[in-house]
Each structure stands twice: as structure tokens, then as C-alpha cells.
Amino acid sequence: MAWCAAVFLASLATLPWAACQSQTEDQSAGAGPRPPRQAALVSEHPLATNVGLAILDRGGNAADAAVATALALSVVHPQAGNLGGGGFALWVGRKDQPVMIDFRETAPLGADPKWYLDEAGAVLAGRAHTGALSIGVPGTPAGLWHLWRNHGSGRLSWRELVLPAIALARDGFVVNADLEADLQDEQVRQRLAASPLAASLFLRQGKGLAAGEMLVQSELAQTLERLAKEGPSGFYRGPVAQAMVRELDQVCAAERIERSACLGLEDLDKYQVKVRPPLIGWFRGHEIISAPPPSSGGVILLQVLGILDGFPLGAQRQAALSARERAGTSAVESDEAGIDARLAHWWIEALRSAFQTRASSLGDPDFVAVDLAQLLSTTWIASRRVQIGEGAGSTSAVPSEAAPRLRPEGMNTTHLSVLDSDGNAVALTTTLNSSFGSGIAVRGAGFLLNNELDDFALPQATPNQFGLIGGEKNRLAPGKRPLSSMAPTVVRAEDKSVRMVLGSPGGPRIPTSVLGVLLRTLVFEQSLKDAVAAPRLHQQTWPGETDFEAGWPAGLLDALKRRGHKLRSLQRTWGSVQAIRVAPDGTVEVASDPRSRGSGGVQERRAR
Ligand code: GLY
Predict the structure, then answer these.
(1) Closest residue (by CA) to atom 1 of ligand 1?
(2) What is the pLDDT of residue 396?
(3) C-alpha distances in angstroms, 159 versus 279, 319, 436, 519?
(4) Contact 206, 193 (CB under 8 A)
(5) Domain-by-domain residue ranges, the chain?
(6) Is there an atom of ligand 1 within 6 Å of 294 CB?
(7) Whose CA is closest to 15, among 288, 300, 254?
(8) Segment 391-431, tens digit of pLDDT
(9) Sequence-ordered list of residues with C-beta below 8 angstroms from that of 419, at least 6 positions apart, any chain
(10) DSSP 457
(11) How many other C-beta atoms lie within 10 A of the C-beta of residue 583?
């Protein structure tokens, strides 16, 4: 009941108390919803997907498969898959209450905001992004262990889940075009070049590895072997922990940072996973389950969906489709799904509002008060909706000296989705923050360390690498988790059967990418594949412009400009949604974002 009450608070907007009670009664009856006809798994790398599918094939459940896939990603997708980072895993068991396993990195116990200021008090923003002071205490080994220990099938040992990753690290794998492309980035190469082990692993004479080359990671294989034998204590204590601290000793000394300000043995020893009730809301007959703080992802999703729910989306779409038919292909002002400028305007303004909430009201709930009951209440959502007129809203002013540090990179997080044939689902998003994190690889242990502390809000409205500006609630403090945008999400039908499992990389573009797929599938009747492939839009309050991927009708963009919107049409893409959808008859389909080279697979139900 306590959980139910907690969820009720977190989802006051749309989950009536009666629904909350009946959910508990249904589930205690033990019947559970109808399972899907098939199992499925999708991730950003085919080798990792194959590892997870093989685990499902051997009788593992969604938790087992997610753990093995995430460990494989730490080897074959080193730009984001990790041991030295963190993330969120949403477990939605067929007969359990959903839980969010928060394995987000924490600020070291010696962390102090003064290290990010110069003697005159000006912000040294680069320190949060690069080097010793950017590194948070890793959470991934503890998080994956927790997922297996508490939700695994019991049919496969921890060691069995780590073994495929060990083999990939020890024997090597062929570098793919995504890894080659991510190593083309000049800033990434500079960071990697500054770390002796990272340079020897990922660079050849200063150039990044090319597609087709083999990447062998012997030290990583040994670390994974230790993790397989000893579980998380093989990472947080003993030789691996000592190797991390030795690496940091050298980095701190080189940067003339007091050693006590950086990650040490005590930080590693004290790291703890947090298990939190996820946020739950209802949208158009679907239950949306997503990430609570310290991620902003679920709040942004539920606020935007709540705001949009009060607009006549269906009627506007019908009007747009009719206008499109009349106009023929010339001068179309809506896309083929029926999204026109008015719908896009509501969507953009709802995002502008939700990202304002992100900046002003969210942080680590173990350190600051986060009033979810208010932020997700019908009153709050309605008050935001009525502020949306027919013209573009304005963005609250920020000091002019806060020049954006927008970078072409920094989009590298990774997501995997799993559904087993019993109907259990895992949506798991994990990250090093920037592509290859801090770029610092641990000698003697073989993995990269994150640069997650850039996700804390620096003073003086200083934007982080994603151009995000935060407030007091997201200020750095020892032991605190920085605010994230990750949004691992599961959608269920009213009978609690899973309908979708999805998530994406992309920093603040994570919730906007996930929202695009939810709106296109649940409202605009697109297939999962079309919804994932469709061009995206992104608005994060500041800067005031809305970004558009290529592919939106020019007429729609012109109509938005006439409403006062400032647009940036970008040639690059963002996000990499990895999604599973279950049709009402239980048939399962997967979509791995065509923006990257991931893969998914669907497996027939196995007799056990
Ligand atoms: N490091 C990106 C995020 O957590 O949003």
C-alpha cells in the first residue's frame, strides 16, 4: 500500500485513487495480465542484441537478458555502454509492482562547488565536463547486479550473464561504422588522446579506429572476469577500485586538484543503488510508466502528455489530413501522420513549459524537496495549458554572458528494451554522459570513466554541455545524484499488459525523442517503425529556438514561423530510440532507430 500511495502522489494528474486500489487487488489475486505471444529485445549494437536474445533463448527472463545486453554494450559500444557510468533500469514485472532501479552516479564525498570557480568567482565550466572533477561514482555494476539479483529468473547465474561480455572483450570484435563515426569527433579524440590507455585502445597515430578493425580489450576482460566471480564487490573494492583511485591520483595531480576533491576508495565502497517508485500517469487509455527524479525524463513526459491531453488532438489531426488531401502534395502544411503547425505548436509549447519545470523544480529527491504531487497535478497541468495561446511563447530571460556550450557531440547514452514471453519488461538507459565520458580509461582495469558531474547545474546560469541551465535544486553536493533526462519507459494497457517498451539516448533530447514516438503511435496512428523513423523536433526552453530534423514539410515550418516560432532546421539527427510494441492480440514488433546501426529481434514463445 505504501508503494501505491507513493505512486498516487507521483501521478495525481491522471491516476484516480480507485484505479490505484483496484490495481493492487488485481495483482494480489495473482492472475496477472495476458502475456505477449513473443519475446523481443532491441539495442544499439547487433552484437549486444544477439547476446540478450541468446539469454532469452536459454530461458532467461527480461531482467537476465537486459543485464547481459548492458554488459555486452560496455564492450562493443564503449562510447556509451559502460561499467564506469550509471543509469536507470525500469522493471515492469507481469505480477510485480513496477520499480525504477536508480544506478545514477553520485558526486564524490569530497566534491565542492568551489572547484568549479576561479579565484575571481567566475565559473570554470570546462572542469565539470573534462578531467578529474567531471567524474561521478559509477553505478552500473551495482545496478545491473541489483536487477539480476532481485528480478532475474533464477535460471541463469550472474556469471552466465557476464560471460558473453568477457568473450567479446577478450577475443575482440569488429569495429562498426557507428564507433568509427563517433571516433571522428575532434573533441572526443582530444579527450581520449589525453588518457594513455584510452589512446592505445581507440586511437591509431591520433586517428580513431576504423570500421572493420578488431578491438580487443584485455584489461576490460579481466575486470569483467572479476565482476563475474565476485559480483559488485569485485568492482567497488579490491584491485579494480584501487586501479580507479590510482588513475584518479595521476589525473588530479596533473590538474593540480586536491586529491580529496576527487573520487576515492570510500566513495566506491559507499555507492548504493536506489530503488524508487516510477512515475505513472494515464494518457489516452494507456498507463505511462517512466523515470522519477533524479531524472527529469518522466516528469517531462507526463507533463507534456498531460498538457496535450487537454487539446483536441484528434479533431485537429482530422482537419489537417483533410486539408492535406485538398492541397495535394504542393504546399502541404502537415506531415503524412496529420501533424500540422497547430499541433506542432501545442507540442512545442508543452515542451517549453516542461523544461522550465526541469530547470526550476527538479533535483535529487534525497537532497532537495521535489513536489511531484504539485508538478503533476491536474491543477498545475491545466494552469500551464491555459497559458498556451495561438502564438509562440517566450523563453524566460537568462544573463547574456551565459553563452551556450552547445557541442556537436554529447549525445551518447544508450538504451535497450526487453520483453520476455511471460510479459515482464525492462527498459534500461545507461550512460557515460558525453561520448566516451571523460575519455579517461582506467589503467589496469580497462574501462572508461564518466563525466556525469556536468549534469549538475553550475551557478551564474551557466549552460552545461547540452545547453541546459539548472537551478538551486540541482546544485552539486557530496553524495548527490545529478539531474538526468533519461526516460526508460513502459506503456501498459488497462489490463496491465505491456504495450510498449522504449527509451533513447540524447541528453535533453531523450524525453523529446520518446515523446515523439508516444504521440505518433498513440495519437497519430503511425506504425512503430514509422514513428521511430519520423523526423523529430526539440524545444528545451533555453535557447528559445526549436530544433527540427530534416524531413518536416516546409509548409508546416513556414506556418510555425508565422506563429512567431524561431526554428533551427538541423542537418544532423539526434536520439536513437530502441522500442518494442505489442499489438492487442499479443503480437510483438521491434524498431531499432535507423539513425544508428542497432538491431532487434523477436522470438517465438518457448515451451518450458
Ligand atoms: N547524461 C545525460 C543525462 O543523464 O541526461
Answers:
(1) 433
(2) 62
(3) 32, 57, 26, 40
(4) yes
(5) 4-172+216-307+408-604
(6) no
(7) 288
(8) 999 866 564 444 444 444 446 899 999 999 999 999 999 99
(9) 36, 39, 40, 41, 62, 425, 498, 501, 580, 582, 588
(10) P
(11) 12
Three-class secondary structure of residue 43 per DSSP = strand
How many residues are given for the chain? Answer: 608
- Return the best residue to mutate from 414, 434, 455, 468 for the ligand 1 pocket (most ligand atoms within 8 A of CB): 455
Grid coordinates in use for 127?
Answer: 572542469
504 φ, ψ (degrees, to nearest 5) = -160, 155
Which CATH number does the domain 4-172+216-307+408-604 belong to among 3.40.50.300, 2.60.40.1180, 3.60.20.40, 1.10.290.10? 3.60.20.40
SS (H, E, C) 554-608: HHHHHHHHHCCCCEEECCCCCCCCEEEEECCCCCEEEEECCCCCCEEEEEECCCC
Average confidence (pLDDT) per 10 residues, the chain, 608 residues: 33 31 36 89 98 98 98 98 98 96 98 94 92 98 98 98 98 97 95 98 97 98 98 98 98 95 97 98 97 98 98 96 81 90 98 97 98 98 97 70 44 93 98 97 98 94 89 96 98 97 97 98 98 97 94 96 96 95 97 97 81
Residue 482: predicted pLDDT: 98
Residue 89 CB less than 6 A away from ligand 1: no
Q: What's the number of CA atoms in the CB half-sphere (13 Å) around residue 516?
A: 27
Q: How far is the CA of 495 from the centre of ligand 1 (A)?
A: 32
Cα 344–Cα 345–Cα 350 angle in degrees, nearest 5: 100
